[in-house]
Design a protein that fits this description.
heterodimer, A: 201 residues, alpha/beta, Rossmann fold, seven-stranded mixed beta sheet, 11 helices, globular, B: 220 residues, Spore Coat Polysaccharide Biosynthesis Protein SpsA, Chain A, five-stranded mixed barrel, 14 strands
Chain lengths: 201, 220
């Protein structure tokens, strides 16, 4: 493609080899509850926004620094991390997750993050102030780029794919939802395949 | 000498002539799926693309276990498009010569590897030819050349039969492929005469083909 390309990555289960919220849940003994909620959300049974509000509520008593510490141990895909490092100004992480929680990953990856936002005080989550609309994030990125390539796996990636020129469903961690597959140009099943593809677009 | 970088397998179709209600690439021959044989022969090629449509999830799950870095290209209109249109999506945005293979053919290992070697030393377009065996073949009218492994294809045709058929394996420049509702061999007709490497292979278009291929595989 000729022109400036932006690569917009979903975070959980795309750049990370594990889902982030279940990992936090494991640490605070809420694993089964969060797992059920995550599965239902990935399948599109519960709307992302409702589910995310509920999940934030369940974690609201945990000190932010403790969540950040857990998140900083989440394993990232080596190939994708390397691709981002070599295309820093063109790569964006578009995640519904909270700014205050994913801050360590933003620092580690070094590219720009679009996240949901939370109010906080004394190291505690107070309330959600803005849930990210991934479609809007991509629209704002488009102002500076000619082509948008999006990579994701779940229901809340659909608005992002709707705004993109090329949609790549990522099946490296779990199976992408059918509605996302229906609008994808490509499907890849690991980071190596994804980067191979990105290098030819 | 340059290595073959890309291969595109077209595996989006319903396989209506075979009528098994599974994609032809997943049809078992001697306890292995057709695509398993293909992927084993393509393990040295770094960029493997498979065009999927009909039962895409099943194809993806199966291939993921064997070739996790494969790239799946979606043809959502698989029910109303031709293999040429699937291939158009498969080669889209590629800039170098690409090996193309129909998802319903099992190449014999030795002759296929020899063809890949030949591709490394020669420029695209190149194609393949084999002894006519399938019941619904694309026949080739071909002349001998100085090289005993190569015939020059002068014409493709459905009727009347010739001793040779075209097995759907070629090494071509991606821009050769257009989004037209015809067949791949009709695109290659624009490049005739076309050097064709003689290979051995088994193709499954119809229930009769599958019976014969299974019989021959068991004999081997």
């Amino acid at each position: 493609m000729k022109g400036k390309i932006a690569y917009c990555f979903d975070l959980d289960g795309t750049v990370t080899l594990q889902e982030i919220l279940p990992k936090i849940a494991q640490e605070v003994d809420l694993f089964e509850e969060i797992q059920l909620l995550t599965e239902a959300t990935l399948k599109g049974i519960i709307p992302f926004e409702k589910s995310f509000r509920l999940r934030c509520k369940l974690f609201s008593d945990i000190p932010i620094t403790k969540v950040q510490k857990i998140i900083s141990h989440v394993v990232l895909d080596a190939d994708i991390t390397n691709f981002i490092a070599t295309h820093l100004k063109q790569c964006f992480i578009i995640t519904g997750n909270l700014d205050i929680w994913v801050a360590p990953l933003a620092q580690q990856l070094g590219c720009q993050f679009y996240t949901s936002k939370a109010e906080h005080q004394d190291n505690k989550f107070i309330r959600l102030s803005q849930i990210l609309n991934k479609g809007e994030a991509v629209r704002s990125i488009r102002e500076n780029f000619d082509y948008i390539i999006t990579i994701g796996d779940s229901m809340n990636d659909v608005p992002m794919f709707e705004e993109a020129d090329i949609g790549i469903a990522y099946a490296g961690v779990h199976n992408p939802v059918g509605s996302l597959l229906d609008m994808s140009h490509y499907v890849v099943t690991n980071g190596k395949g994804l980067c191979q593809l990105l290098n030819t677009l | 000498m340059s290595a073959i970088k890309h291969v595109v397998i077209t595996a989006a179709g319903i396989g209506s002539r075979l009528g098994m209600n599974i994609p032809k690439c997943l049809v078992p021959v001697a306890n292995k799926c057709i695509i398993d044989y293909q992927l084993a022969l393509l393990e040295d090629i770094e960029d493997v693309r498979i065009v999927v449509g009909f039962m895409r999830e099943e194809v993806i799950l199966h291939v993921k276990k064997i070739r996790p870095d494969a790239i799946f290209v979606c043809n959502h209109q698989y029910a109303t498009t031709t293999t040429l249109q699937s291939l158009f999506l498969g080669v889209k945005r590629l800039k170098e010569a690409v090996l193309i293979i129909d998802g319903d053919v099992i190449p014999e290992a030795v002759s296929f590897k020899n063809f890949l070697q030949y591709c490394k030393h020669h420029t695209a377009p190149l194609t393949t030819i084999c002894r006519a065996a399938t019941s619904d073949a694309v026949y080739a009218v071909a002349d001998p050349t100085d090289d005993q492994n190569i015939l020059n294809i002068m014409q493709f045709r459905r009727h009347p039969a010739t001793p040779f058929e075209w097995p759907g394996i070629s090494f071509i420049q991606p821009e050769t492929i257009k989004n037209e509702k015809t067949f791949i061999y009709q695109r290659l007709e624009h490049q005739l005469p076309l050097p064709a490497y003689i290979i051995k292979c088994w193709e499954v278009d119809t229930p009769e083909d599958l019976l014969r291929v299974n019989r021959e595989a068991n004999d081997d």
